[in-house]
Amino acid sequence: MRRAAQDAAARWFVSLLCDDPSVQPLPATGQAIGVDVGLNHLLTLSTGEKIANPRHERRDRAALARQQRRLAKKEKGSANRARARLKVARIHARIADRRRDTLHKITTRLVRENQTVVIEDLTVRNMVKNHRLARAISDAAWSEFRSLLEYKAQWYGRGVIAVDRWFPSSRLCSACNTLRDRMPLNVRTWTCDCGVTHDRDVNAAHNLLAAGLAVTVCGAGVRPQRSTPDRRSATKQKPSRREP
Predict the structure, then answer these.
(1) Any catalytic annotation for residue 36?
(2) What is the spatial distance between Cα 81 and Cα 138, in angstroms, rounded to a whole number?
(3) If we measure between CA atoms, which residue out of 169, 179, 178, 124 comes closest to residue 146?
(4) 92 in Cβ contact with 68 (< 8 Å)
(5) Whether this model's pTM surpasses 0.85
(6) Count of Cβ atoms closer than 10 Å to residue 82 Cβ
(7) Quick one: pLDDT at residue 238?
(8) Selected catalytic residue, list 57, 139, 150, 201
(9) What are the helix (H) ranges across the chain?
(10) Which of 10, 160, 166, 186 makes an SS bond possible with 232, Cβ 3.0 to 4.6 Å?
(11) How many CB atoms neighbour CB 114 within 10 A?
(12) pLDDT tier at 221 (50, 70, 90 boundaries)?
């Protein structure tokens, strides 16, 4: 099946549906990794590695604002307005292309290097209701990251586990399992009563990995074995789904 379409930036795309015999499961590996998403760093891995947030939208924010102001001054229905709209659309397309390229490279690497990838089951559509963080969250594209990761894992015989969003990964000490009552977003490092000092994001990635492996071993989340203080399930298993 073949289909052609033109986007808002006047670019033509042709889609071909076919079987690709080169897409085969990768050799099994015993590696598993926990991934914590964020804004200061796009991803923090349970290995301690932090992947920088490129902030693609911020790089073109001034140019985008300038073109949007010019567009607003054009007469509706005029050829000048159509040209101005096209310039705005091309900036949006450039931002989206850079973002997608970055996410493709990251997700391909994670799938190739690890048999199991554990992430957090975030509800991004609710998180963007926070007007102070909405732009940054949208630019990070956490939903797209998950979609790419899941369909590549399905292609190459890997596993993706999503830990329940109510699991307190940041507040739980990965060394002694002590749970702190609260932790504001501005707290980036903290010291547990057991004496261990944690980087907030690395600690969260460690806890996500442990919770995800517990899902595979004992089915936590199918029959919740412990609860967070608000009585919600601590972990659940999210089956992989293939994106078109």
Answers:
(1) yes
(2) 27
(3) 124
(4) no
(5) no
(6) 11
(7) 40
(8) 201
(9) 56-59, 61-73, 79-113, 124-127, 134-140, 142-155, 200-218
(10) 166
(11) 22
(12) very low
For the question of residue 57 being annotated catalytic, the response is: no
Long-range own/partner contacts, residues 55-60 (CB < 8 A, 24 or more apart): 55/136, 55/139, 56/95, 56/98, 56/99, 56/102, 56/139, 57/95, 57/135, 57/138, 57/139, 58/139, 59/95, 60/91, 60/94, 60/95
Coil/strand/helix, residue 12? strand
- Catalytic residue among 57, 120, 139, 164, which? 120
> What's the chain's average pLDDT?
86
Over 50: is that where the pLDDT of 114 sits?
yes
How far apart (Å, rounded) are the C-alpha atoms in residues 2 and 18?
Answer: 9
Give me the amino acid identity at 9.
A
Residue range 164-180, pLDDT digits in tens: 888 999 999 999 988 98
With b meaning 16 or more CB within 10 Å and e meaning fewer, what string describes 186-213?
Answer: eeeebebeeeeebebbbbbbbbbbbbbb
Q: What is the pLDDT of residues 225-237, one digit of tens each?
A: 333 333 333 344 3
For residues 212 and 64, give the distance between their C-alpha atoms in angstroms, rounded to a whole number: 41
Give CA–CA dist 205/45, Å, rounded: 6
Say which residues have a Cβ less than 8 Å from residue 21's Cβ, sequence separation at least 6.
none
Catalytic residue among 36, 57, 139, 150: 36
- The yes-or-no answer on residue 120 being catalytic is yes
Asked if 7 contacts 93 with a C-beta cutoff of 8 angstroms, the reply is yes
